[in-house]
Amino acid sequence: AAKSLGQGHLQYYNAHLQVRPSRLLVQDRLLREAVANDQGLVLHFQPLWNLATNRLEGFEALVRWQHPQRGLLPPAEFIGFAEARGLISLVDRWVMRAACKQLRAWRNAGLPPVVVAVNMSATEFNQRTLVEEVQLVLADTGIDPQWLEIELTETTLMKQSEHVLQTLQALRQLGVRLSIDDFGTGYSSLAYLKRYPLDKIKIDRSFVKDTPQDADDVSLIQAIIQMGRSLNLRTVAEGVETKAQWDMLQAMHCDLIQGYYLARPMAAEEALRWQQHRCQMSAPQ
Ligand code: C2E
Ligand code: MG
Ligand code: MG
Ligand code: MG
């Protein structure tokens, strides 16, 4: 049985080897073209709500790939691939520029200023030219640095390199905001909360998911919010799906909320209408 299983595995492996390289190359070329031609990648925008002011704080820009054969792909379907193929910097840079362009378009349309948050991979964060690129994008789009936020992961901050510290300081110096995404899921070290000039902690959805029923998760979230407050870091709860979660987080004085309960990520036009509607309702200008 072991032998036939081994053979089966070998066959599968061979078939895989024969098929995979060309498919990979095709995907690789398609993704490069999408970035180069500014065609194929799209951003969806999910609101971040400020609980203290009861106003819209801004949006997280989430990338999707309008794939010629496979339809609209979520990041889970291609970010890993882009990382493996060395294309993630191209994607992250496209996203940062596109997000700032969208912000510019909304401002030109007369909307009140909002923050836009972009996700950044460790690879892109470690590029020598990152700070210059950020400055260039802001200058080209005429966006003040305070409206751009960069979401980093614990993986990025884990490497205690001088370069990471210097880059964070340079970005902070510019006025760009910095947040830790998916907080609590990686190799969390509380030391970096103190060492690095960060603005926000985004509490991962996995801790929010089972609240308010799960007492341990409730305690964990409470502890993160309190820690954030004492370190002067704002806290964002991700993946808020119910009114009960919203009310709980508000009672805990969590600073910001993101999740389906408020809104799903939306295409740019829908996000524009959503802003117009919401701003009229709760923040008359
Ligand atoms: P993330 O940065 O933690 O983004 C939040 C994800 O949670 C988004 O998934 C969003 O649609 C989803 N989400 C938000 N609210 C809820 C909710 O209430 N319930 C549930 N079940 N899900 C919710 P999405 O858009 O599929 O993105 C997945 C991940 O892909 C992101 O997680 C981020 O790590 C990565 N990603 C997205 N855009 C980029 C990018 O431009 N560059 C890089 N490097 N990574 C990106
Ligand atoms: Mg994020
Ligand atoms: Mg997140
Ligand atoms: Mg998350």
UniProtKB/TrEMBL annotation:
- Report which superkingdom the organism of origin falls in: Bacteria
> Which organism does this sequence originate in?
Comamonas aquatica DA1877
Which residue numbers delimit the EAL domain? 24-279
Membrane-spanning regions, if any? none
Taxonomy of the source species: Bacteria, Pseudomonadati, Pseudomonadota, Betaproteobacteria, Burkholderiales
Q: What is this protein called?
A: Diguanylate cyclase
